[in-house]
Structures are given as structure tokens and as C-alpha cells.
Amino acid sequence: MNETKARDELTRLSRSLFDRGYSVGSAGNISMRVDDGYLITPTNSCLGFLDPARISKLDFQGRHVSGDKPSKEVFLHSAFYETRPSAGAVVHLHSTFGTAISCMCGLNPEDCIRPLTPYVVMRVGKVALVPYFRPGDERGGTFVRDLSGRFAAVLLANHGPVVSGKDLVSTVYAAEELEETAKLLVTLGDRSVNYLSDSDVAELHRVFG
Ligand code: 13P
User: FRET partner for 145 with CA separation of 20 to 30 A, picked from 6, 31, 76, 110?
Assistant: First the structure.
């Protein structure tokens, strides 16, 4: 995809997430890989009203080369690109239910969204928990880097989800799937729940990769 198209696609999908309530105000940031670097939403921008020409561009070393000042969460995004070479996009949201779960006590740090439905397994996989750091703290990126690419998605404690994927569309779909699963988990509350078994999960990985 050429860069003009990539900018338009980033603008279109960001607006779609905003319009459907996955992001409010200036919360959230999205990046995607292009031929000679990365596009990332500017800091303090609203996902609903991006100007494609002003989207920030970084080179492969993470240096700002054009556009407005990049998101303060650039460290999180670059940690995914560095540790998951197949990653073509990263989506960070403060979506309500994923963020609600990120505030809960007693989460399993290596599996904080339990396998409730097939699609969360197929589109997202296991989700790790990143301890609380203030927004923009480089230690968040260091923590993700130290996960060594084992997880395509994380929940930032008391903050929200970050999801990576092979391209922008599939990453947005995965972020939506994660949010819907979080909504189901919050809706189910403390009812007793049938989670998918290890063999159900293994079958999904075998059949769908
Ligand atoms: P930016 O406006 O710098 O992208 O930060 C928004 C955000 O979601 C912080 O986590």
C-alpha cells in the first residue's frame, strides 16, 4: 500500500473506532508500518478527526521525520515492532471494558483475558498484563520488549489494551474482538462460566493458525 493510501486508511479506521465509541476525546493511538518507517497518530489528536497529511512519520529507528509530534506512547508501539517482526500495525485504546478489566485485582499476568469464545483465541490469543506506568513512561515499552514477542496483545494496568497485528485492518478487528470479550467478561461478572478448555484452544490454533 502506498503512503497516501496508508494515511487515508489510518484516518478512516481511526474515525470508525471513534464513531463507535472505542475511543473518546484524545484517548488512544494507532500506528502502522509503511515502506520506509511508521505512521503514528499525533499526540493529543482525536481518533475521530485526524488530518492524513499531519499524521506523524517515524523512520525505522523511531526518529520523528515528518508530521505533527508523535503519540507519547511511541515506546509501546516500537516495542511491538521490535519484538514481533510480522507486526504491521499497533492499536492502543482506552476502550471501556478492556480498561475495566485492566483495573481488576488478581489477573493472571500471562493470561488476563480468559478464553471465553473462539474468536478471541483466533484473533487475539493470550493477553499479558503490563504493570501500571504513567502514560508515555518508557518503562512500559521496556516491559513489552521483555515479553520477547510472546504476546500479540497486552492490557496496560489501569489504562487499557494494546494490540498488534499483521496489518491495520486485522489489528483493528483484533482490538474490537478483545473489547467485546472484555465486555462479556464484565457482563458475566461472578457467575460461574464455562471457559474454552485447553484442547478447544489447541484445536483453534491447529485449524486457524
Ligand atoms: P497520545 O495523545 O500521546 O497518543 O496519548 C493518548 C493515550 O492514549 C495515552 O495512553
Answer: 6
Which listed residue (9, 22, 38, 73) is catalytic?
73
3-state secondary structure of 173: helix
Domains of the chain (ranges; CATH) run: 3-208 (3.40.225.10)
- Looking at residue 54, the DSSP 8-state letter turns out to be G
Whether 60 shows a pLDDT value over 90: the answer reads yes
Q: Could you tell me if the CB of 28 is within 6 A of ligand 1?
A: yes
Q: Which of 119, 173, 180, 203 is catalytic?
A: 119
H and E: helices and strands count for the chain = 7, 8
Please write the tens of the pLDDT for every residue from 12-24. Answer: 999 999 999 999 9
- Using the mean position of ligand 1's atoms as its centre, give its distance from the Cα of residue 30 in Å: 9
CB of 44 within 6 A of ligand 1: the answer is yes
Ligand 1 near 135 CB (within 6 A): yes
Query: How much is the pLDDT for 35?
Result: 97
Partners of 129 in the beta sheet?
A: 155
Task: Please state the pTM of the whole predicted model.
Answer: 0.98
C-beta separation of 98 from 156 below 8 A: no
Q: Is the CB of 43 under 6 A from ligand 1?
A: yes
Which residue, 123, 144, 163, is CA-closest to 32? 163
Rg (CA), the chain: 16
Look up 173 and say whether it is catalytic: no
